[in-house]
Every structure is written in C-alpha cells, then in structure tokens.
Amino acid sequence: MATAPFAPTPVVLHSCYIAVQRPTEFFVDEHVLMHILSGSFVIFVAGAEQTYRSGDTILLTRHQLMKGTKYPEPGGEFNSVSLVLDQATLRGLHHLAPGPIVRPQLPQPVVALPRHPLFGDLARSIIAYNAGQAIPQLPALKAQEAVVLLLHLQPELRHVLFDFSEPGKLDLAQYMAQHFSFNLGLKQFAYLTGRSLATFKRDFVKLFHVSPSRWLQQKRLEEAHYLLQAKKRKPSDVYLEVGFENLSHFSTAFKKQFGFNPSQVQGSVA
After folding, report:
1. pLDDT in tens, 25-54
2. How far is Cα 115 from Cα 36, in angstroms, rounded to an integer?
3. Cα–Cα distance measured from residue 91 to residue 4, given in angstroms and rounded to the nearest whole number
4. Cα 25 to the chain's mean position, in Å?
C-alpha cells in the first residue's frame, strides 16, 4: 500500500454512455466519490440493490465488491464524474480532521450524500478542466476540494476517509453467501475477509466441509440453474452474473454437474 504523504495525480473518471451498459462487477479498491449528472446507476452490493439518479452524489467505500448497471436518460445519456480518493492522497489530507478514528464493524459500502449544488459544481469543473489541456496539479487540488466538502457536510466521514487499516476478520459464511458470484481468486477472497490464504482455506473447510474452489463452483452452478429455470434467463446472460469467465467453461461445468446443457433447462430461454 502506498504511504507517500500526498498523491500528485488522483485518478479522475468521466463516464458517458448513450446505451444501457451491460451489468458489470467491480472491486472498489479505494474510496470513490461519484456525482451523477444524468441517467441512473443501479448498484447491487451485499445482497441489496439501490438506484442512484441524476443529481445524486455517492461515496463508494474501499475494499468493497459491487455490481452495477448504468442507464442513460430516455433519449439522452448517462453522464457521471468520479474522483478516486486513494490512501496516499488521504494521508496527505488527514490534517484537515485530525484525531482518533473509530472504525465501524461493518463499513457502509455506499454512502448516499446529501444533495448539494457544490457537488455538481465540482463535477462540472473537473469536466471543464479535462476538456482543455491537462494541468498535472489540478486533480490533487480537486481531491482536496472534495474532501473539504465531504467533511463539511458529514464530519463523521472522517472515520471512513482516514481509516487506513486493512480489512478486519469478517464472518466467512455471511460474506461468501453475499459475494460468491463475484469472479475473484481465492487470494482476493482471503484478503477481503481479513485472512491469509492459508487461514482462509482452513477456516473455509472447517465451516463448509469442502474446498473453497469446489464450494464456489457448486454455488455458482446452483444459482445459474435457478436463474435459468425460475427466471427464464438465457445461458449467455447468466454465466457472467454467477461468476464464470466464459460461456464455454460454464456450459462444460454445468453439464458435468447436472447431466445436461444449460439450454436444456426447462423454462430457460435458449
């Protein structure tokens, strides 16, 4: 993890779509401040779905697994600006709100922020700067502006922004039940549940009486069968949603598990 006192170039992301984006999964490694200028963003995280719309500003907290779909306005576009508030940048801004940090047991994956015109002004100013010649110092200044605004509107966010600790040990059964469909390696699951890889495997077998790899495949295939049969989904839509990398591997594993191809499930759409 970077420990430099200040990051000179925080990452700025500008998303613009005129068609519905295919649902995608993503790992939020660093805090991300997002302002939606138009359209809507549906986020699925920890078993719950939430929709954010034009004018909304959200903080995606670090070390979270999420899935999301971006929808353009009818006849228009989806437009958002995101600013990555990485740990190096935040360490350099800790002086803005010094003091002890109280770490929540279960960090909130998405923090919906109060509507304020300055969030929109910040997003539009970032777009304006990016439209012209890039000035290397500006992203860092915009990150500082964003943090000052966040602390002004919600001072308690200091406990989120300036918590530089690693993930704590989480309830393994609960976490895996909520996140099994994410296409992650065992090392990443171990890290996100606050364990070494060896401890993760040991705890997993003790809890589920099967290896993590075997459990993940069985769980994903069971979920796929449910989506195909009960929800009448297409195999080509399901395999990514349940955590498989490609349709061929999914079809092979599915037939080995159930004895027939995904397209042969009663109720599914070929």
Report:
1. 889 999 999 999 999 999 998 778 899 999
2. 11
3. 8
4. 7
- Choose from 5-14, 17-26, 104-113, 213-222 the range with maximum mean pLDDT: 213-222
Torsion of CA 36, 38, 40, 46, to 10 degrees: -10
Tell me the residue type at 128.
Answer: A
For the CA atoms of 72, 74, 75, 78, the dihedral, rounded to the nearest 10 degrees, stands at: -20
Number of residues that make up the chain: 270
How far, in Å, CA of 62 to CA of 29, rounded? Answer: 5
d(C-alpha 29, C-alpha 84), whole Å: 9
Q: Which of 154, 215, 192, 214 is nearest to 29 (CA)?
A: 192
**Max CA-CA distance within the chain?**
61
Q: Scanning the structure block, which residue is given the tokens 């899935």?
A: 67
Tokens encoding 71: 């929808």
| Distance separating alpha carbons of residues 233 and 5, to the nearest angstrom | 50
DSSP per position, 98-130:
-S-----SS--SEEEPPP-HHHHHHHHHHHHHH
HSE-up of residue 50 (Cα within 13 Å, Cβ side):
14
